[in-house]
Amino acid sequence: MKRIISIVLTLVLTLACLASCTPVEIDQPLKGTNVNMYVLSGPTGIGAANLIALAKDGKTANTYTFTVAQNNNDIVAAVSNGSADIAAVATNQASVLYNKTKGNVTVIAVNTSSVLYMLANGQEIKSVADLKGKTIYTPGQGANPEYILRYVLKGNNIDPDKDVKIEFVSDGNELPTVWAKDKDAVIMAPQPVATVLPTKYENAKVVLNMGEEWSKISDTDALLMGCVIVNNKFLSENPNAVKLFLTEYEASIKAGLADPAATAVICEDNKILPVKAPIIQKAIPNCGLTFITGEEMKTKLSGYLKIMFEANPQSVGGALPEEGFYYVAK
What we know:
Elements: H1 2-21, E1 34-40, H2 43-46, H3 49-56, E2 63-69, H4 72-81, E3 86-90, H5 91-100, E4 105-112, E5 116-121, E6 135-138, H6 144-155, E7 165-168, H7 178-181, E8 186-190, H8 193-200, E9 204-209, H9 210-217, E10 226-231, H10 232-237, H11 239-258, H12 260-269, H13 277-283, E11 289-292, H14 294-311
Parallel strand pairs: 1-2, 1-3, 6-7, 6-8
Antiparallel strand pairs: 3-10, 4-10, 4-11, 5-8, 5-9
Helix pairs in contact: 3-12, 6-9, 11-12, 12-13
């Protein structure tokens, strides 16, 4: 009996020693973290649509509270004051926020490539060169659309301040009325407006894909317009929740691409896009839904932001983000 007791005590002490000497794992169970996510109404918000639906049904590992902001200023404020843990924003806006918050945000994924298209209403436009002498209406003054347009024009030997006239509107909702007052104008529209316009004008059609035109003159192979950022305090305190979010978010984007019809209904119900589901369904394949992370994201996005910086330093907040801006999971 003494021998048995001795063996048992030895085993207990050995297990206790192993438990005390084993380092605590950094990766704890990936579940149950509360996440406040903000998305801006528009194409950058589409990727979260299926995640929103699953979260409402209690079918996600993280517990999400979603806010669909109709105004970019609301996103900026939420990120700046820390009420947004994660946010889907324009890529250049992510850089602006990085500089504004003194490096307190990290980009974790690119979610949207090109969503910009040039449309004409009966005019013959077969190349960027044909835009010379035209009046171009577009939203996005001081944001991605303006800098993309100027870059593409300059890359095709067109002076954006002399060879064309650029008229800015406050948002894409104003574009459907442009041809009623200027039938010779050309329109650069984001989705879903680019899908709406041909339904309102018999002779309207897409004549140029700005993403394709960008790739023709740029070393970067993609026009990266939307991304997801995380508040660094949240990232440091909840690294596993961020990893889990990326898994759930990637699945949401894949579901959006696989089933545009169901995704369109979610987008309408949650006011992610300001049009009806049938139009959203038609627009989704042209909304540039993508999911790029890690080193690939860092390489492509840093190249894109460098072009934005060279066009206008203020477009990215006055300075290019440092290495720590890009999330590359170990």
